[in-house]
Write the structure tokens for this entry.
Amino acid sequence: MTEPDQSADPDSPEGRGGAASVMPAAPPGSGRGSLDRRRILGAAIEYIDENGLNALTMRRLGAHLGVEAMALYRYLPGREQLLDGVVESVIDELYGDPDVHLAAAHGWQDYLQRLAHGVRRIALAHPEVFPLVATRPPAAPWVRPPLRSLRWVESFLDALIDSGFTEESAVAAYRAYSSFLLGHLLLEVSQKGVKISPRDEPEGVPEAIEGTDLGNYPTVVRLEGLLSLDESAAEFEEALENLLERLEVVLREGRSPRRGDARA
Amino acid sequence: MTEPDQSADPDSPEGRGGAASVMPAAPPGSGRGSLDRRRILGAAIEYIDENGLNALTMRRLGAHLGVEAMALYRYLPGREQLLDGVVESVIDELYGDPDVHLAAAHGWQDYLQRLAHGVRRIALAHPEVFPLVATRPPAAPWVRPPLRSLRWVESFLDALIDSGFTEESAVAAYRAYSSFLLGHLLLEVSQKGVKISPRDEPEGVPEAIEGTDLGNYPTVVRLEGLLSLDESAAEFEEALENLLERLEVVLREGRSPRRGDARA
DNA sequence: CCCGGCGATTTACGCTGTAAACAGAGGCAG
DNA sequence: CTGCCTCTGTTTACAGCGTAAATCGCCGGG
């Protein structure tokens, strides 16, 4: 049941030991131990994973924890901070992933590969949370989604600089890498979300999209099969490798990745 | 006043005739003409641009239009559909942009360049709306943000196929292009948003981010200047050109962009 | 024994989205 | 002109939201 989609995506939640899932935390109703910030955030993530983001309210989260809504306010100043905490907690799962390293022990490319797949694993494990990771306003302009954590920014920059990147190119790589991860993963989870969970609009019409007749879009109709293929894993891998190759060129040429001339 | 940031970003709202702005629509209070779906959506976009996304409520939008909230329900089934309409309207601005063409009259690269800059112009003109464009669940899995419109998907695929791309590589290009646009532009507007509008958290602390002492992050501290530079326009241009080059290789090799061997 | 404080609850308020009933302004038949 | 129908916006109402403030039960130290 829920067979491995196709050729076993190594980052999909089923295709793995579950290293990227939330803490055990005990089943929902049985959470009897007294409240605590970690427990609340864990329950919030669990609740969003199960019921979707806009189903999360203070009252319902309280109920899920066997407690009144106002009890949460002893540990969190308000709903916004709850969401911030959720984002932070989800990203912190990276820290416990044994396949992702804080230092580039086996070269910067290995480091970037592991980090990228770690983030992808998180995104796929919490597809309902990831849009939050992507869109919550960052603490500083240069703390970019989806990494959003000073620790990982520091780790990223150190890894590249230690590997020979200049400071400028390390920063440029950080930007390109963030953008790549954000775009790919946000698209992947939103695609996943629409495929499996018509949560917001319970009436899902597979044919005749949104009432528009597709007669005016013959190419779309003709390519619908191709368009519907899910090649997320391969696309991700390929784009990641392309990015790494670009960075390798930058590194070898030993300068900021602003193109020198290149004539074309 | 509000001088062109640096070297005049051609997509920034100030650096242009305003071709990507919403319809004139008359000043807020004076909107006396009877209601109508277009007018409502235009006012909603205007309201979000001015007051932020979560300040938009049916009641306030009604007031902004000089009408009670319930009047809006005669033209829209509910709030969700209002947001869908906002997204659709914003993307439809592309259709009125004279610099963006529906057909690849001057080659597919010109087409993709114009389209990309058109979308970027929209994102920068409506930074508060763009996260909505990025995260609203698409109507079908292959209607991807940020294009989100059958018409543009059709136009995109036709342009590439007419230029010699195979169907497979046109679809792959569509995916890569969406992902590139989404990642770059979402990052750019969220960065912009945090820089100019501390709307949600009115207390902006420029130093000492979120209470963390930066002592544990020496590299971040050392590179803060570099990290804070806003090179969005150049990054965008460079990443776009890189993508076009990749696609050109795909086109010349006349096959799906799945890498044949390439050994490394 | 009291008692102070801590963790959770109760109550309350203003705001939200929206269902349902209502009101008024044309247009048209008689 | 009168009566009615439709079309558009208002009024009223309700459940649910986030959260401020007051309250309550408990529990360890004088």
Residues 167-196 of chain B form the longest helix (30 residues). Chain B has a mean pLDDT of 86. Chain B has ten helices and no strands.
